[in-house]
Amino acid sequence: MRAAVLYGIDQLIKIEDFELESSVPGKSLIQVQYCALNHRDFWITKGQYSGLKFPIILGSDICGYYKGKEVIANPSMSWGGNEKVQSKSYSILGLPEHGGLAEFVYSNPEYIYNKPAHLSAAQAASLPLAGLTAYRSLITRAKVNAEDKVFISGIGGGVALFALQFAVQSGAEVYVSSSDDRKIEKAITLGAKDGFNYKQEDWPKSFLQKYDGASVIVDGAGGPDFAKLVKIAYPAARIVVYGATNGAWSNVVIQQVFWKQLNILGSTMGSDLDFSNMLQFVEEKKIIPVVDQIFNLSQINQAFEYMSSGKQFGKIVIAVSN
User: Fold this and answer.
1) What is the pLDDT of residues 76-122, one digit of tens each?
2) Is the pLDDT of residue 51 over 70?
3) Digit-coded pLDDT (tens) for 129-144
4) Quick one: which of 132, 205, 232, 254 has the fewest CB in 10 Å?
5) How far is the C-alpha of 266 from the C-alpha of 174, rounded, in Å?
6) Residue 307 falls inside a structural domain
7) Do 143 and 123 fall into the same domain?
8) 123 plus 147 within the same structural domain
9) Are 94 and 59 in contact (CB under 8 A)?
10) What range does the domain containing 225 cover?
11) Other Cβ atoms closer than 10 A to 234
12) Domain-located, residue 284
C-alpha cells in the first residue's frame, strides 16, 4: 500500500510502498480517504514524544471506508474500565501502532463509527483526536454550563477551536487569546465574545478590567504564561490543562491558587464514553470542524513545515486517496 513512512527523528517522511500485515487478530481494515494531522505527529518527528519506534506511519485522525460505509475511528485505544483515568495499556493510533497516513489502517471494530452525515470526509477526519481532547477537557472535566465564562488560550489549534465551538454550543460566554490578531478575529466570527493578544504583557489587566474574570480556563500551552491564567481565574474556577507546548509552569503565585481555591484539572484524550458522547454532541449541534488546508499525501513534508510555522487556523488535512 502507499504510505507516508517516518524512519527517524528529524528525517523527511518518505512516500513509498509499505507492506502492512495481512491480518491482525481482533482488528479490521479501514480504507483511508483523509487523515488529519495533530501536533502529536509533529512532536514525534522531532523525537519529543515517549515510546518512539521506527519505521512508523503517523496519523491518528482518519475518515475512510469500512464495509461500504464512510466511517471515522476513535484513536484513543485501550482506555480501560475506569472513566477517571486511562489504563497502563492505553495508547493512541499512530504510535506505537501504524496510523492513518496510508491507504489502509487497522482499528478495533468497537472504535469504528459512522461518519457524521452533515460533515464532508475531510471535515470528519479533523474531528477525532482534537474533538475528543476538547470534549473531555471542557465538558467531562470542567463540566461547563451556560452560566460559565470560558477563557481558551492559543486559539487556532485544533483542540482550542473545538473547545471554542463546544463552549459556544453549551451556551457559555467565551474569550480567547492568540499571538495573531487575525486568528482572534476569526474566533469572534465563530462565537467568541472577545480576544486578547498574549504578546501584550498587560493583557490580563485589560481582561480583568473588561470582564472581571473567567470561571473555566482551557490551556494547552503551559509555560510562564500559565501564571497569567491563574491571575484571571475567578475564585473556585476550573483550569483544565491538556498540553504543555511551552514547557513547565513558572512564576505561578501559589498563594493565588489556594486562596482562590482553584481547581486545576489535568486531561488527556478521552474514554470510549467520552468519544461516543462527543460524537453525539457534534451531530446534535451540527458542529463543523474548521479545516485550514488540505494537502495531498505526496505533500506530507510541506504539510508538516506549514504546521511548524504556526500559521494555521484549524486542522491540516491530508488527502490520502482519491
Assistant:
1) 999 999 999 999 999 999 999 999 999 999 999 999 999 999 999 99
2) yes
3) 999 999 999 999 999 9
4) 254
5) 20
6) yes
7) no
8) no
9) yes
10) 132-266
11) 16
12) no
Domain total of the chain: 2
Instruction: Output the domain CATH number for residue 212.
Output: 3.90.180.10
Label residue 246 by pLDDT band (50, 70, 90).
confident
CA separation for the pair 252, 30 (Å, rounded): 46
Give the H/E segment covering residue 273.
helix 272-285
Contact 50, 77 (CB under 8 A): no
| Tens-place pLDDT, residues 152-204 | 999 999 999 999 999 999 999 999 999 999 999 999 999 999 999 999 999 99
Angle at 12 between CA 8 and CA 14, to 5 degrees: 90
> Does 293 lie in the same domain as 211?
no
Are 115 and 11 in the same domain? yes
**DSSP letter string over 142-199?**
S---TT-EEEESSBTBHHHHHHHHHHHHTT-EEEEEES-HHHHHHHHHTT-SEEEETT
- Per the listing, cell 504556526 goes with 310
23 confidence band (pLDDT: 50, 70, 90): confident
Q: Tell me if 77 sits within 8 A of 23, measured CB to CB.
A: no
Q: Are residues 152 and 243 in the same domain?
A: yes
Quick check: 291 pLDDT over 70? Answer: yes
pLDDT at residue 322, rounded to an integer? 64
User: Across the beta sheet with 194-197, what order do the strands follow?
Assistant: 194-197, 173-178, 149-152, 214-219, 233-241, 263-266
Tell me the pTM: 0.96
